[in-house]
Design brief:
Length: about 140
């Protein structure tokens, strides 16, 4: 089960990054270009919200079926002094949960805005921060290898 969930989490991450980049770049370009907010912009931000939440659920399942979880018992507080264990058990989950929360907050806040500029700027800011957070905590050596 672990290998299946790990593969699903890895491949779904490509989709999350792709749609997050599309939604973010779209919002930035339209904000800077003073363009109107359209139904397609709503769909992009909503699809990003959905796929990121699915990734979060897959990640939570992976966390609890992972053999790495046993490192908490073996290392205890020394998890923080082991860079690999810290990345997989603390940094990656925590930072990515924060990133998904920012996507959720940005999506919710943008719906309450009344002007196109305000809607697009809200998506641009929150989704950009989430993208930076995602990119900062991807275990690149194992993900791309």
């Amino acid at each position: 089960m672990y290998d299946v969930v790990k593969s699903l989490h890895s491949y779904w991450a490509y989709l999350v990054l792709l749609v997050l980049i599309i939604a973010t770049v779209n919002a930035i370009i339209k904000t800077l270009g003073d363009k109107e907010y359209e139904a397609n912009d709503f769909r992009k931000s909503l699809f990003t919200l959905i796929v990121s939440h699915i990734q979060l659920l897959i990640g939570l399942v992976l966390y609890f079926v992972s053999p790495r979880l046993e490192l908490w018992s073996e290392l205890g507080g020394k998890v923080m002094s082991n860079s690999i264990a810290r990345l997989y058990l603390v940094e990656h989950p925590f930072v990515n949960i924060v990133a998904v929360a920012l996507i959720t907050i940005g999506y919710s806040k943008h719906k309450k805005k009344l002007t196109s500029k305000a809607k697009l700027k809200t998506i641009a800011v929150f989704y950009t921060i989430a993208l930076v957070l995602f990119l900062s905590r991807i275990p690149w050596s194992t993900w791309m290898g």
